[in-house]
Design brief:
With 143 residues, the chain is mainly alpha-helical. Among the domains are: 43-73; 75-143, no CATH class. The chain contains four helices and no strands. Helix 1 packs across helix 3. The longest helix has 35 residues, at 25-59. It starts with 24 loop residues before the first helix and ends in a 6-residue tail after the last helix.
């Protein structure tokens, strides 16, 4: 019969994960890209609720449905949700552009991968700020 294996002298994790890796921007933007994708699924549900409210109001079935949705959307919490969803959309968009650049075989060197990640993150934030500045300046959103 075979002998049971002796105790290992060094205890190491079977699968290294986040606790072993040094933080870097490409890791952060990769995780953020997935998180923003999930947030956009929630946003799709909110858009579906908006369309449902329009349909219920237009059909005469529930005339107060659209007013109720607008009350939520214009509340401070609703504006926070819309701001977060627009931030998720722009960051996800710039992350997708970064992936398209990588699909072309460009930007795989360490410095250029880091630069693409930083530019994507900063551009997503800048686009969100510009988007909300336009909404506020044109009185499409009132605080």
């Amino acid at each position: 019969m075979s002998q049971p294996p002796s105790k290992p002298t060094v205890y190491r994790p079977l699968s290294p994960h986040l606790q072993v890796w040094k933080f870097h921007i490409t890791m952060f933007t990769s995780i953020l890209h997935r998180a923003t994708g999930l947030a956009l699924v929630v946003g799709a549900v909110l858009v579906a609720a908006w369309l449902l409210a329009i349909g219920l109001t237009a059909s005469g079935c529930c005339p107060q449905a659209y007013t109720a949705f607008l009350t939520f959307a214009a509340s401070p919490f609703g504006l926070f949700v819309w701001f977060g969803l627009s931030l998720a959309a722009f960051i996800h968009l710039t992350g997708g552009i970064r992936h398209l650049i990588w699909d072309l075989g460009l930007g795989f060197q360490l410095k250029s991968a880091n630069a693409l990640s930083w530019w994507g993150l900063l551009l997503g934030i800048a686009l969100t700020i510009a988007f909300w500045a336009v909404l506020l300046a044109t009185s499409k959103v009132v605080l």
